[in-house]
Write a structure and sequence with these properties.
CATH class of chain B: Alpha Beta
Distance between the termini of chain A: 59 Å
CATH superfamily of chain B: STAS domain
Largest interface: A-B, 30 and 32 residues
Largest sheet of chain A: 5 strands, parallel
CATH topology of the largest domain in chain A: Rossmann fold
Number of strands of chain A: 20
Largest sheet of chain B: 5 strands, mixed
Oligomer: heterodimer
Strand content of chain B: 15-25%
Strand content of chain A: 15-25%
Helix content of chain A: 40-55%
CATH topology of chain B: Transcription Regulator spoIIAA
Chain lengths: 750, 150
């Protein structure tokens, strides 16, 4: 079931609920496609949750989806509803939903777009209902008329939100697009609105429910709906390029003159938030302002923050969080002071003491701030270094105006001065980011991949590769036998998150990556990579290297990192003295060229081509009954094709037999199967023998040293791995969640 | 068939190996599936095509039996053996151990090159004499027996 395509020459796509034309809708194409596709899979589809970061904007996405589905006139009838922002009770919101549902259903069935937003009474709607729907709509309205005079508000709310279930099964199914971003406004209602909405939607699938991510997850779970069974779309602020496009697009639409510099500034300053960007440009239009300089932008920004749309929005957030003016004032003081002091965290008790409120009230405030992502609160510790830059400016200015009673003119002047000083830095940071190496991305892509060792050794790279044409470097790296296996990085953060001393450097210049280097997730295998980019136009010198090594060592020491690997990157590499220093300290070193080659290799590894799979053979054998011989015979066939020497073939066979025995003997495999993968590459055969079950302790501990010291005659068993290591060129246990996976490589040259 | 050249065949499992009898001595124990015979006080035991845990233990049992019956030397013949695994090797070490305790010599005969390499890697060759074939093994043993005054 999918939307019917419009025949050629049919009416153009109408804008019904969308506030912008489809062509002007920027940056959410993939998400829009998901919403449309979800309607198409109506028969089996369940719910789709849109988990929204605050200010990331979702209403236009849902409106665009509505318009597209309406114009397609397919089998799913789109119904868009946004919970009203304020001054509405649960009952009013529910009745509004019922009205919108009927109006939009009838509009779709009559293919009359204007009805979708028309202000119509229930009687009007019955009059407009097409013949095929008249019966059930009449019944619904009649039931509603009885229900609305009941004294049970909860019953009425439930009735209204469940109205879509009354569509007879033979009629087109409604597809509810429910925008619940304002759900928090209904927190103090007697009727549990969130629960009623979610339960009603769950009974009227398919549906889309959008809300603030921290709130909606909690409410879905509280409503008893299976969160895991729902599809999810995560909406973050727009990426930098899309944010720039959005600024330009709105400015064009609203007729606001905008320079390229200001476009980039607004995109950066508002951190890709469609809501804030839109608010600024609408104000510019209303005030007939051109935004052609940083000065124009920041003057408007300060006006907005102290009295315009931004002020209105942030004030409403504060009022929702702390409805009592005295509590609100205390909250502003607390937030402002914690921002100023740069003190990240405080305890719940400290907050309760400062706000002078009962624990339950403090809890409500913290929960609301947490949902809005103004703070992070884990139940005990409160981290205040959150929220957008605009929010932080708003809080500080409110504090100065309301609590400190400073003259408004002074606050305006200071705010303007700070914003103007910050603007060039904001944009410069953006440009630097565009030009910089994506250090975090590269570290995250490590994932146990194998790469040429020389990419981490600038001195070796300079000696062997520097000056060679790019194609030659790539070709030689491909066959470079010296490879290293990277760890699996499971967490990365900017260095400044660990050490305030790194504040003086660009955020991107230092990254701390926690990883596992061995086959098992054990403390011994845990390692922390400390990577830093040295800003140098020439080869970095020994002093710079020394300084960075000391800085990173200190960070490691303070953070209590037991196993550390330093990695320095400098655009033009390192001087001879610097390289020697790096060698002494066991640090890795790469130039920008090496880094880019590494980055390319890692991306390739993550997106393995199907061609690679064509050279891969996979066999599954039951354990026991000498089946390792079948594996050996298979390996022999494959190795012959590669023209391995007879001696090497026998070595491969023996290694496979040993690997199979190991897998059978130690894994306690529940399914008693051995998985074999043979990858044929130009110059080598890669064999992986794996099994499910437990990871043998000796693999985890790599306890081969004990074996080495024992006398030959005392060693009765446990030689398999030693044999394999002797017979093959590369042997290692790959990390698997359970059981073992032994990877063995035999090179043709060997 | 030896493994001088790798062969494309699936190896017969121990359970499938043929039961042999020799001219000199009838097969002593059909259950063990191990071919053996004695020449004087030397027992010659034949390893099967795949020396693993099962076949290794059978050889071990046969060797123990021969030693208990008064054998003063053991020749283990590998002329049929194409593949040996590490468990099989550990069992061979056990046999060497037992033989040493009984004051008996051990000779491995007709071992293919790849298996010799494995034995060397794991240090077996420090404890046994290797002979080209059974005949050479018996000759060597006869010489050393005379030298020792047996």
């Amino acid at each position: 079931m999918s939307p019917r395509p419009q025949p050629p020459g049919s009416q153009p796509a109408r804008r019904i609920l969308g506030r912008v034309k489809r062509a002007e809708f920027v940056g959410r194409s993939a998400e829009l496609d998901r919403l449309i596709a979800h309607a198409g899979s109506a028969r089996d589809a369940g719910g789709l949750l849109i988990l929204l970061a605050p200010l990331a904007g979702v209403s236009e996405l849902m409106r665009q989806a509505y318009d597209q589905l309406f114009n397609a006139q397919g089998d799913a009838v789109p119904i868009y509803f946004s919970l009203p922002a304020s001054d509405t009770t649960a009952v009013s919101a529910a009745i509004e939903f019922l009205n919108a549902f009927l109006a939009q259903y009838i509009a779709f069935r009559r293919n009359e777009a204007s009805l979708a937003q028309a202000s119509l009474t229930m009687n009007d709607l019955v009059q407009l209902a097409p013949a095929a729907d008249l019966h059930w709509i009449e019944e619904l309205v009649s039931a509603y008329n009885k229900q609305r005079f009941s004294s049970d508000e909860r019953e009425l709310v439930r009735f209204c939100f469940n109205a879509p279930r009354r569509v007879p099964s033979g009629n087109p199914k409604p597809y509810i697009l429910f925008d619940a971003v304002k759900l928090a406004n209904y927190d103090n209602e007697q009727v549990p609105v969130a629960g009623e909405i979610i339960k009603a939607l769950a009974g009227s699938r398919p549906f889309v429910l959008a809300g603030l991510r921290r709130e909606i997850i909690r409410e879905v779970e509280r409503a008893g709906v299976d969160y895991g069974a729902l599809e999810k779309v995560r909406l973050e602020p727009l990426a930098e390029a899309d944010a720039c496009k959005l600024v330009a697009s709105i400015a064009r639409r609203e007729g606001v003159s905008l320079s390229d510099e200001c476009r980039d500034l607004l995109a950066q300053q508002f951190e890709g938030s469609p809501f804030l960007i839109n608010a600024m440009l609408l104000s510019a239009r209303e005030k007939h302002l051109a935004l052609n300089s940083y000065f124009d932008c920041e003057r408007l920004y300060v006006d907005e923050l102290l009295g315009g749309r931004l002020n209105h929005y942030f004030t409403s957030v504060l009022e929702k969080v702390a409805p009592d003016p005295i509590d609100r004032s205390a909250l502003i003081r607390l937030l402002s002071e914690s921002l100023g002091a740069g003190q990240r965290t405080a305890s719940f008790a400290a907050w309760a003491g400062r706000l002078n409120l009962e624990a339950a009230d403090v809890e409500n405030i913290l929960r609301s701030l947490h949902v809005q992502e103004i703070i992070n609160w884990d139940g005990e510790t409160v981290d205040t270094q959150r929220g957008s830059r605009a929010w932080r400016d708003f809080v500080r200015s409110r504090f100065r105006l309301d609590a400190l009673r400073e003259p408004r003119a002074l606050v305006v002047a200071d705010l303007m001065s700070a914003a103007l000083q910050r603007a060039p830095q904001t944009v410069a940071r953006h440009y630097r980011r565009l030009a910089s190496l994506p250090l975090r991305d590269v570290l995250q892509a490590f994932n146990y991949q194998r790469v040429p060792k020389v990419l981490f050794d600038y001195a070796a790279f300079a000696a062997d590769y520097k000056g060679a044409p790019a194609e030659e470097i790539a070709a030689r790296l491909e066959i470079d036998p010296q490879v290293m296996k990277l760890p699996q990085v499971f967490h990365t953060a900017h260095g400044v998150a660990f050490s305030g001393e790194l504040k003086e450097f660009d955020e991107e210049s230092c990254v701390v990556a926690h990883a596992f280097a061995g086959p098992g997730y054990t403390t011994e295998n845990e390692i922390v990579w400390l990577a830093a980019k040295i800003d140098s136009k020439l080869e970095a010198d020994a002093d710079a290297v020394e300084e960075w090594c000391n800085r990173l060592d200190k960070l490691a020491q303070r953070s209590g990192f037991a196993h550390v690997q330093l990695w320095l990157i400098a655009n033009e590499g390192f001087s001879v003295e610097a390289s020697e220093k790096l060698r002494q300290r066991g640090a890795y070193a790469s130039s920008r060229t090496q880094f880019e080659l590494l980055s390319a290799q890692l991306s390739e590894g993550l997106n393995k081509s199907p061609a690679a799979a064509n050279n891969e053979y996979v066999f599954i054998l039951p354990m026991g009954a000498d089946n390792e011989l079948l594996a050996a015979a298979t390996a022999e066939q494959i190795a012959r094709r590669l023209n391995f020497r007879p001696e090497a073939i026998n070595q491969i066979k023996t290694a496979i037999v040993e690997a199979c025995i190991n897998a059978s003997e130690h894994s306690l495999s529940p399914e008693q199967k051995i998985y074999q993968r043979f990858q044929v590459e130009d110059d080598k055969l890669v064999i992986t023998i794996s099994s499910r079950g437990v990871l043998p302790a000796k693999v985890v501990a790599k306890d081969s040293a004990a074996n080495d010291t024992a006398g030959v005659l005392e060693q009765r068993r446990g030689w398999g791995l030693k044999l394999i290591e002797t017979l093959m060129d590369e042997v290692e246990f790959e990390r698997v969640d359970e059981g073992t996976s032994l990877r063995m490589v035999k090179y043709l040259r060997s | 068939m030896s493994l001088k050249e790798p062969q494309t065949k699936l190896y017969a499992t121990a359970a499938q190996t043929k039961v042999y009898a020799t001219k000199e001595e009838p097969l002593a124990d059909l259950k063990s599936n191990v071919r053996s015979h004695t020449v004087g006080t030397t027992a010659v035991v034949y390893a099967s095509d795949y020396l693993n845990k099962l076949t290794g233990e059978r050889i071990e049992r046969e060797c123990k039996k021969q030693l208990d019956s008064g054998a003063r030397a053991l020749v283990i013949d590998f002329s049929d053996t194409e593949l040996v695994n590490s468990i099989g090797i550990s069992i061979l070490l056990g046999i060497i151990d037992i033989a040493e305790k009984n004051g008996a010599l051990v000779v491995f005969s007709d071992v293919n090159n790849e298996t010799v390499q494995l034995f060397e890697m794991l240090g077996l060759t420090r404890h046994v004499v290797l002979a080209k074939d059974e005949e050479e093994a018996l000759t060597n043993l006869s010489t050393s027996s005379k030298a020792m005054g047996h």
